[in-house]
């Protein structure tokens, strides 16, 4: 992309992994492309590895404190449950997921809401692992508001293979391993049949 549409709206700004704010994803991607191709427009050769860190203008993110990290699994489980409820209210939650919501409503730990989000994230490929690529949009959207998210996800990847299994996901969110059931297969299979 040689030309990007000027974006006067600050909501389109993005923060890169180099802690530099760009007017839009287009502007950031264009800069990275110029540098990878060694074009004269490249502002800095290190921009070859430029990528999205989060949406919005760059800001100083505070370090996640130990007490915040301890509280994070409960906050995350409750937040996932609330998101699931809101999607159901808007009629944007598929049938099997509605059943999972009903189950999550009866459980103070919202186990099925945690499993739902894992299934929702495991999209390309649907292999029962959530990769960094699959997490990118969630992290980029939430990171400026929730500074514990990225370090928390690093902890979730217990074996450091850059992907999170369902059991790692449930474990880091404080679920009893005996309650974690793989419900993704049936949901993914039904969703494929609808396309």
Automatic annotation (TrEMBL):
It is found in: Secreted. The keyword Transferase does not apply. The lineage of its organism: Eukaryota, Metazoa, Spiralia, Lophotrochozoa, Mollusca. SUPFAM superfamilies: EF-hand, Kazal-type serine protease inhibitors. Residues 62-172 form the SPARC/Testican calcium-binding domain. InterPro entries: EF-hand-dom_pair, EF_Hand_1_Ca_BS, Kazal_dom_sf, SPARC/Testican_Ca-bd-dom. It comes from the Eukaryota. It comes from Magallana gigas. GO terms for molecular function: calcium ion binding; collagen binding; extracellular matrix binding. Keywords: Calcium, Disulfide bond, Glycoprotein, Secreted, Signal. This is SPARC/Testican calcium-binding domain-containing protein. The keyword Secreted applies. GO terms for cellular component: extracellular space.
